[in-house]
Amino acid sequence: MNPSPSNLLVAVANEVGFVKVIGRANVALSVHFKILLAKLQGNGFRNFVLDLGECATMDSTFLGVLVGAVLHSAGTPPEGSATCLQLLNPNQRVAELLENLGVAHLFAMLRGANPAEAALEPSAPTHVPASKEEITRTCLEAHQLLMAVNPENVPKFKDVAQFLAEDLKKLKEEAGGSG
After folding, report:
1. What is the domain range of residue 16?
2. 120, 9 in Cβ contact below 8 A?
């Protein structure tokens, strides 16, 4: 039997965006998460708590999207109010991934109850499912960020990034040539 699908729940309270990951924080969920975060940022939110209490695993793509959310916002919002992303109740496996890829320092780790638990609602995708090109681009950007943040990640992801770059180029050529 297949594991239950991953979901995102969202709530806003006290100028903080709360997002809860249920299931696997993986490439399939990363595009939806990226869009949700951008929408919240567009509405003026800069502080986020990502509740990982029910997140079974996290892959490198999702982690790269998290890193991108923190790094790409630095200095961009008015008055330099960069995005603050706190991780609530990450399990040992996720915490080890953050340490092993050298990005744990980018996030505050919190333990305890989610103060917005009662207000959380399912976050429905705001558009059609992500295209293969969108997923590939997100994957590539995530892995490039992980390599840029920690040079020790280059040997781990350079082949993946090269493959994704070549795949993305082919997808763009096919899209341009099919008209």
Report:
1. 7-126
2. yes
